[in-house]
Design brief:
By secondary structure, this protein is of the alpha+beta class. Helix content is about 45%, strand content about 5%. It has a four-stranded mixed beta sheet.
């Protein structure tokens, strides 16, 4: 099969993101991870099944944003709790959280999400989260990271948070006092607060 019939971006069985930008239209990770430059067929054989990276469904975006907005001041903590829960499940299944950033590997958003933001949900007290919102968001995060297609989340989640804040009446309406000035969250969401 010709390479132009294959998706430009894919995620492998461990959630690692691959781009068709290597020599001779081969797939490579970005940033480079030492996994090599592989044809689609080689990649499928070595690390399949492969899932194409696609845009988030508009309905899913709306449901996720509404869950945050309806949780009010517990919205951001609920989001972080769902994100952390998903990360732990991915670690248990694959030993990595790569699927959370497979659609946008190497971006500054992915680096912040993977390096710090996903861990902010660890140890949040039950009184700071909305269980229904956590369950809704977790179900969508699981769908996006383990379903038949991989959804770009590193930047996409930032847009969702911005929409949730707008619905709720601003960032302060979805963020409790302990998360309001959390540096990693401030940096990751800064581009979406305009």
């Amino acid at each position: 099969m010709a390479t132009d019939q294959h998706p430009y971006r894919v995620a492998d069985r461990e959630g690692e993101g691959w781009l068709r930008n290597g020599p001779d239209d081969t797939y490579t990770t970005f940033p480079k991870t030492g996994l090599g430059d592989l044809t689609y067929e080689e990649l499928e054989a070595a690390r399949g099944p492969l899932r194409p990276v696609e845009a988030m469904a508009t309905e899913d975006h709306a449901v996720f944003a509404q869950a945050i907005a309806q949780a009010g001041k517990k919205g951001m903590a609920s989001f972080l709790s769902a994100l952390h829960r998903t990360a732990l499940e991915l670690m248990e299944q694959n030993g990595t959280v790569a699927a959370l950033t497979a659609g946008r590997t190497g971006s500054w958003e992915a680096n912040l999400l993977r390096g710090s933001v996903i861990w902010e949900g660890e140890g949040l007290s039950a009184s700071r989260v909305d269980p229904a919102a956590v369950d809704t968001m977790h179900a969508l995060l699981a769908k996006w990271t383990t379903g038949p297609t991989q959804v770009e989340l590193a930047e996409g989640l930032g847009y969702i948070l911005a929409d949730a804040a707008k619905q709720a009446g601003g960032w302060d309406a979805i963020t409790d006092r302990w998360l309001k000035n959390k540096e990693s969250i401030e940096r990751w969401t800064a581009a979406h607060r305009l």
